[in-house]
Amino acid sequence: MIAAGIVLLAVGCLDLTRRSLTGAPRAVVLAALGVALLIASAGADAAVWSFVAAGVAALWALATPDRRGGRAGFWPVALVLAVAVVSVALLGIREDHGPLGRMWPSASPLGAVSLDVAVLVIGALVFLLESGNVIVRIALRDGDVPVEERAATLKGGRLIGPIERVLVFALTLTGAFTLLAAVLAAKGIVRFPEISRDEEGGIRAEYFLIGSLVSWTTALAVAFLVWWGTSI
């Protein structure tokens, strides 16, 4: 399970860094994050997975679009999902968490939380923040929505999306499905006036529907991964 968390954390940190930095500062920060991930993984007796995560993150960076555009395709998403699913299936929650695990304070208001579970949850949340936006951009770029139209409409989605995914993730794991339905319905109500002014062709409506559905699916998939990992 910790392996899936490390992979999601590596990809999520990569996307947050390339969203905020460019050039040499980006390279320095990514190198520092890589070293920190290796040290922390070694302390949790999972050093090999830091190298797997670095490889997956490198492929993700090469294949996914950043804010300025780039290549697109769903195979990087499938790669991350496959690695996460396989790692959860193979490892589950380990009994020996290494030196870091022995120092980990497992007690919490929610009960005992092992290091493996904590890393998976943290990795999932970091991944949902910006990597979820990347997945949405892949979906929109693969669709028929023109780039110039997308850039000029519904700009708040870049901020709303991460908040929305974290809420969907948290509400799904806690079983608050009624509140989850209310949150999803509220988004449609808030966006309705802007969508209703859509011109012929339905660009705004298509953008909203594709973006929302992909964003929700991403959050639900990650929530299911965490639920499955803590259940086996």
TrEMBL record:
UniProt keyword annotations, A-Z: Membrane, Transmembrane, Transmembrane helix
Membrane-spanning ranges: 29-62, 74-94, 106-129, 166-187, 207-228
Name of the protein: Uncharacterized protein
Natural source organism: Microbacterium schleiferi
